[in-house]
Amino acid sequence: MLPAPVSTQDPATATGRPLRWGVVATGTIAARVVADLALLDDAILQAVSSRTEASARAFARRFGFAEVYSDAEDRPGYERLFDDPAVDVVYIATPHAQHHAVAMAALTAGKHVLCEKPLAMNARQAGELADLARDRGLFLMEAVWTRFLPSFCRAAEILRSGEIGSAQWLQADLGFVAPDDPASRIQDPAAGGGALLDLAVYPLTWALGVFGEPSDIVARGALTPEGIDRQNALTLTYASGACAQLLTSIGADSPGEATIAGTEGWLRSAGPLFNPRELVIQAKGGPARTERFEVPGNGFGYELREVTRCLQSGLTDSPYMPPAESVRMMELLDEARRQMGIRYASDAD
Ligand SMILES: NC(=O)c1ccc[n+]([C@@H]2O[C@H](COP(=O)([O-])OP(=O)(O)OC[C@H]3O[C@@H](n4cnc5c(N)ncnc54)[C@H](OP(=O)(O)O)[C@@H]3O)[C@@H](O)[C@H]2O)c1
């Protein structure tokens, strides 16, 4: 997978005709992403849907959406939003377990889709979404925002330049202590809880970006009594001889760093690997240097610019985060879950 080129442009700057956005769900990440969407010169906040009318209205007031939809007796609010001809593209920010059903409904209704990570609960579901988007000629992208951040793209550029020689291994971690609330989506098996589905996409993004396709994956994890992973360790090996060690946890705070060791030096991304603020590079035994990065807003503008750029130019895939890449990531996560003994209800469908 080719990493996106380093962007030097403010993502807020319009690149073409305005797009009319619909947003599904009014939770934590929806608010953070929509705050950045509101900064784009060519984004129109057309409609928001929520399970409850009060929440939809409060969110619409806060960000300035023109229309609100909520659950009715006969159908969910998101289906009513997808019927709205004024909406061009939808951003889906429900918990993981709803991504497949909501995105299938959006594509069936003819809407382009940006869906939160993970794209689905397993590779079969992700493949169904990719097939439907392709058959309908619609845009589909998993919201892996890290891939579009100038810091991540710059790390890829440094590696391509050969400054640290040829990359040999990668170590990446991401952990936080999740509230011990069995009802929260992160602890709930029915919501796809656990560290793997919530966090592993970020270290995996680094591993896929640096080394591409692994030849083997070994996964070990510590499970909760409910059968989700409290933490896990993935070891990826590559035909080239390279190795990657990825750790994610919902029971331990970690620095959230990625370190890449090469034949002529190393590169470390600091603070945190999903939105690196610093790259430290030490090449050929010389002094280490630090490159620092600041993002406008919450940093989601770059992925939103990519969706906008693609739709304005008639692309149905982002070349930097196509649906096939999401399916491949889900296949790796499926295999990791198989090895750790984690099953979700959606696996039986
Ligand atoms: N890209 C990132 O940096 C990032 C960060 C955090 C999370 N995420 C992803 O975003 C997704 C949501 O995470 P979050 O932290 O925002 O969760 P959250 O705070 O629990 O919000 C999820 C929202 O989805 C809706 N919802 C909840 N249960 C639902 C159900 N059973 N059916 C339909 N809708 C439901 C609710 O909105 P309404 O009440 O309005 O319906 C809820 O507020 C997850 O898949 C997560 O992996 C991404």
Detail the topology: elements first, then pairings.
Blueprint: E1 19-24, H1 28-37, E2 43-50, H2 53-63, E3 67-70, H3 77-82, E4 89-92, H4 96-108, E5 112-115, H5 123-136, E6 140-142, H6 150-161, E7 167-175, H7 195-199, H8 201-211, E8 216-223, E9 229-237, E10 243-249, E11 258-262, E12 265-270, E13 278-283, E14 289-292, H9 301-312, H10 323-340
Helix pairs in contact: 4-5, 5-10
Defining key terms:
349 residues; alpha/beta; Rossmann fold; Dihydrodipicolinate Reductase, domain 2; eight-stranded mixed sheet; six-stranded parallel sheet; 14 strands; globular; binds NADP nicotinamide-adenine-dinucleotide phosphate
Structure characterization notes:
This protein is of the alpha/beta class and 349 residues long. It folds into two domains: 19-145 and 316-320, NAD(P)-binding Rossmann-like Domain (Rossmann fold, 3-Layer(aba) Sandwich); 150-294, Dihydrodipicolinate Reductase, domain 2 (2-Layer Sandwich). It contains ten helices and 14 strands. The chain has helices at residues 28-37, 53-63, 77-82, 96-108, 123-136, 150-161, 195-199, 201-211, 301-312, 323-340, and strands spanning 19-24, 43-50, 67-70, 89-92, 112-115, 140-142, 167-175, 216-223, 229-237, 243-249, 258-262, 265-270, 278-283, 289-292. The strands form two sheets. An eight-stranded mixed sheet has the order 8-9-10-7-11-12-13-14. Helix 4 (96-108) runs parallel beside helix 5. The chain is globular. The chain starts with 18 loop residues before the first strand and ends in a 9-residue tail after the last helix. The mean pLDDT is 96. The chain binds NADP nicotinamide-adenine-dinucleotide phosphate.
